[in-house]
Design goal:
alpha/beta; Spore Coat Polysaccharide Biosynthesis Protein SpsA, Chain A; 4-stranded mixed sheet; two-stranded parallel ribbon; 8 helices
Length: 212
């Protein structure tokens, strides 16, 4: 956190955007909340479980016209913030994509393969014209999220949010992202344990896409 927040702040100052950095904390005891506050961020306590709970807590805590989400483990380079911001006129949801030309991902082979299969399955079956539905590095137009609710509370919330926005008529746009190995923290992505939840979300979105 001490390494990441100053870099984010520097990018935000360089592009001259009026902004606030919000850190969602799920009850950590390693000093993360205190470090975030000391560096000028606002800390929001997570009340619902999982990655999805963290995303929803952050969204509920702010009312700015644009909301950017990124992981705090430094796998998303702060420099991408400027690229996302500069692309905001091109869509209602701007996605940092590992799998489009110019993007890349430094991941273990099995995790990379599973991520590619996951994305290809979702995009092909749901006919969503993006390559990386599972990226957490995103810029949302706040207005596009108004009135929407989401069921997922794990990593599958990112697919649910993107597809729901698309089916509502929102425009999705991707920019290249270099996904780096995590520099801090421990991954909570239990790939096989979450498999059924991804399938459930895929089924729910399929019904919404074609049968509702």
């Amino acid at each position: 956190m001490e390494a990441l927040l100053p870099k984010i702040d520097a990018v935000l100052k360089r592009i001259g955007v009026n902004s606030e950095i919000v850190v969602v904390d799920g009850g950590s005891t390693d000093g993360t909340p205190e470090a975030a506050v000391s560096l000028g961020a606002r800390v929001v306590r997570q009340t619902e479980r999982g990655y999805g709970g963290a995303i929803l807590a952050g969204l509920q805590a702010v009312n700015s016209p644009w909301v950017l989400t990124m992981d705090a483990d430094q796998s998303h380079p702060p420099a991408v913030i400027e690229q996302l911001w500069n692309a905001r006129s091109k869509g209602d949801l701007i996605l940092g994509s590992r799998f489009m030309p110019g993007g890349s991902a430094e991941m273990k082979r099995l995790r990379y393969l599973l991520s590619r299969i996951l994305n290809l399955t979702f995009t092909a079956l749901l006919r969503v014209p993006v390559r990386d539905l599972s990226t957490g590095c995103r810029l949302y137009r706040r207005e596009a999220l108004e009135g929407l609710t989401f069921r997922a509370r794990d990593f599958n919330i990112v697919q649910e949010m993107a597809v729901t926005l698309y089916l509502r008529g929102a425009k999705l746009h991707e920019i290249p992202l270099h996904y780096a190995p995590r520099a801090a923290g421990q991954s909570h992505a239990q790939i096989f344990a979450f498999g059924l939840r991804y399938l459930r979300t895929l089924g729910q979105l399929f019904v919404r896409r074609y049968l509702s």
